[in-house]
Amino acid sequence: MAGSKVTVGNVEIVSLLDTPMEFDWGVFFPNNSPADFDPYRESYPGAFGEGKFRTYAHCYALRSGGKTVLVDAGIGPGPIDLLGGIRGRLMDEMNAKGVSLDSVDVVVFTHLHGDHVGWNLTADKVPTFPKARYLVPQADWDYFTAADVASQNPQVGASVLPLKELGVLDLFSGEKALTQELTTYPTPGHTPGHTSIMVASAGQKAIITGDLAHHPAQVDRTEWCAGFDGDPAQAVASRRKVFDQLEADGLLAAICHFPDTGFGNLVRLEGKRIWQAL
Questions:
Q1: What is d(CA 14, CA 85) in angstroms, rounded to the nearest whole number?
Q2: Residue-number span of the structural domain to which 144 is assigned
Q3: Which ranges in the chain belong to alpha helices (H)?
Q4: CA within 13 Å, CB half, 41
Q5: Percent of the chain, pLDDT > 90?
Q6: Number of domains in the chain
């Protein structure tokens, strides 16, 4: 397994694991039998718990052009009752890997699900990253702040709306340059505004994919959808588009819910597309 840092041209990407998580297979993949995943157990042991689906809440710190951009903000300090009382450890991860809170210039969200916005605020309800602007996809803002949806997503009121009140939140749509080397890349389907991040520097490229996929089996079985994909057909289309691009161009990917660091490539083996972790 590779270390927690990779370079793409002049950009450094640091993988930050907030926490591993486990779910019942039927909850996470309601349209699949758990047996569907059995052929992938040997190839991807890190995606299997004791009778459950094992996944990971990764965030990524990108150093580019003198700025530090944090992609997503994890589950938060917890405890998260829905997930068995687990607690996030992003603060310890950042400290251990040399990413200070006040070095973060931008926090950009791939989307607004609870496991991506949890560390936005401190216990005193001030921004955890005191010098950062927080960037939210416009389509996710519109969707998740609607009264009927917000009532079912308490993380919005607890961790997202206060950012606007504090004057540190910006909305974006489409492809937005974060630095000369980092650009948002719309990949809707999981949520209306779901966004990946394209890294392009010194002739090299990589994509940070957010929740484009959750289990490594999906790099080959792109039609398999998590129950949390809001628009399954659009999620499949985005997944196929990006994964075809990753494979065809040999690009590095950072897939937020995959095992280890989430860094890897998509390659062909015996006619199937596989995830080859770094």
A1: 27
A2: 5-277
A3: 25-28, 90-96, 138-144, 147-150, 154-155, 161-165, 232-249
A4: 12
A5: 95
A6: 1
